[in-house]
Design a protein that fits this description.
Keywords: Membrane. 24% of the residues lie in helices and 29% in strands. By secondary structure, it is an alpha+beta fold.
């Protein structure tokens, strides 16, 4: 269902903040950058980019007001500006849960550009039936103001330039692979390890890196056990020479004992020639959106 009238509707339940106190704010760290505005009695609108990921926009719903289904975004000229036409931007899929509306990079940039131009954003959807049981057909309007957006946007963009190349989810379970009987890895795996090292050195909550060496099933079992040890120690040496403290490392080697693929094919053997890394961290009692990796 689409709506062609962008102005606030007489039967709409409207959620917006007073101009005097509504502001955009930025939370910044090397783990994530966020730009958000709180909407009283409803939730908040958030632009976010985590390390190693692209930007997204989402609505964080504190109180359930929007019913699942289709909603519509509009760009409105604010009341304190000269008259201008309202613009229909795009539709949005509303789902159940704490984040009922999520847009990936391209759509989030469309919304961001409208706010940068000083436009209000209005999301019009259907309300939950229990919010208006006697008013079927009533809309639920979420209004997002452009007040203070450009200043917070500048802080957000500065944060983007200092993000780490990867986040915890991307490095917490990693593996480097080896050719044949080699105990050296390739450039792609070297880049992955460098990203892991940068993350670990930046996150004070990382406690342990567990390093496990493996081989394929070719050759003698005793030789494979020794080769898996060399591979694990080669990775450990790479980590420690680049700043990872040895007390943080747990090193093990297993030879051919734990294959992840069949050793009957070249592709399977290539998957088995590996060193895996598991990065463990503990969650502090509380973290802000930007501080939580």
């Amino acid at each position: 269902m689409l709506w062609t009238i962008a102005a606030p509707h007489a039967l709409a339940a409207t959620y917006s903040g007073p101009i005097e106190t509504t502001r955009w704010r930025a939370d910044t760290s090397m783990f994530a950058c966020s730009l958000y505005q709180r909407v009283p009695l409803w939730g908040q609108a958030v632009f976010e980019r985590r390390a190693g990921e692209t930007q997204r926009f989402y609505l964080d719903q504190f109180n359930r007001q929007l019913a699942p289904g289709e909603a519509q975004w509009f760009a409105l000229t604010p009341s304190w500006q000269a008259f201008g036409q309202h613009q229909t931007l795009m539709s949005a899929r509303v789902t159940e849960g704490a984040e009922p509306v999520i847009h990936p990079w391209q759509q989030s940039q469309l919304l961001l550009n409208q706010l940068r131009e000083g436009k209000q954003l209005l999301l019009r959807g259907e309300p939950w039936p229990e919010q208006s049981p006697d008013q079927t057909g009533e809309f639920a309007d979420i209004v997002i103001e452009p007040v203070g957006f450009r200043g917070a946007l500048a802080e957000f963009q500065t944060c983007l330039s200092s993000l780490l190349p990867a986040n915890y989810d991307q490095i917490s379970r990693s593996a480097v692979h080896f050719d044949g009987a080699s105990d050296e890895f390739n450039d792609a795996d070297r880049e992955m390890l460098d990203n892991l090292i940068r993350y670990v050195l930046a996150d004070p909550y990382v406690t342990t890196i567990v390093v496990d060496g493996h081989t394929d099933g070719s050759g003698l079992r005793a030789d494979n056990l020794e080769l898996s040890q060399r591979r694990a120690e080669f990775v450990v040496d790479y980590l420690t020479t680049r700043g990872i403290h040895e007390d943080m490392l747990q090193v093990r080697w297993h030879g051919e004992r734990y294959p992840v693929a069949s050793n009957q094919s070249a592709a399977g053997r290539a998957q088995n020639r590996r060193v895996t890394l598991r990065v463990d961290r503990f969650e502090p009692p509380s973290e802000t959106l930007a501080q939580s990796p």
